[in-house]
Amino acid sequence: MALRWLPREEVFFDLFNQAAQNILQAARQLKELMDDYRDVERRAEALKALEEKGDEIIHTIIERLNRTFVTPLDREDILTLAKQLDNVLDWIEACAARMAIYRIPHATPEAQELAHIIVNICEAMVEGVGSLRGKHDRVDGVVQEINRLENLADHVHRDAIAKLFADHVDAIDVIKWKEIYETLEEATDQGEDVANALESIRGKNM
């Protein structure tokens, strides 16, 4: 088959790295917002700009996929990974937006802890995506670490909800914070979906 000798489009690896680094930058900005809670609207707008930048990168990946004949990974895997990376960034941005829209006066320790976990997940994602160009030898460790962090986020989320209902008498505050906690936890769930996508790629390219 002559097709097997066609050059593969290596630019996908660069685009995935750009996407992952952009997500990590957004996660760090969310963590900084939670740790130093001021100028919320301005910082939420900065996160929105990163989300829009991420959309542009994902759009470029999909556009390149549609016009590339031979790809370095399965087309389905490229599309799945692109969409899952986009989802992580969407939920990170959504959290900052909710903090601004709901005019939350301060961040809770539980929100801070979840934001820290999100940063750690995104750091692992950067490592996992960076390994795609090589032998994928670091993917297994990355997947395990992201799964561990997502499980930790589940525990923090459950404890946060329990404390919320125990300590608050204002129903509006409960509704606002419940949604914020769920948004933070959803970002970690989407990170786990990125790990699943990386694991699928690893399995097909061993």
Structure, explained:
It is built from 6 helices and no strands. It has 206 residues and is mainly alpha-helical. The protein has one domain: Phosphate transport system protein phou homolog 2, domain 2 (Methane Monooxygenase Hydroxylase, Chain G, domain 1, Up-down Bundle), CATH 1.20.58.220. The two termini are 22 Å apart.
Keyphrases for this structure?
Methane Monooxygenase Hydroxylase, Chain G, domain 1; disordered N terminus; 206 residues; mainly alpha; single chain; 0% strand
Q: What structural category characterises the helix and strand content?
A: mainly alpha
Separate helix tally: 6
Q: What is the average per-residue confidence, as pLDDT, rounded to a whole number?
A: 92
Question: How would you describe the shape?
Answer: globular
Fraction of residues in β-strands:
under 5%
Could you say what the CATH architecture is? Up-down Bundle
Query: Low-confidence runs (pLDDT<50, min 5 residues)?
Result: 1-7
CATH class: Mainly Alpha
Q: Using the CA coordinates, give the radius of gyration.
A: 18 Å
Count of beta strands = 0
Q: Give the full name of the CATH homologous superfamily.
A: Phosphate transport system protein phou homolog 2, domain 2
Helix content range: over 70%
User: Secondary-structure element order, as H and E?
Assistant: HHHHHH
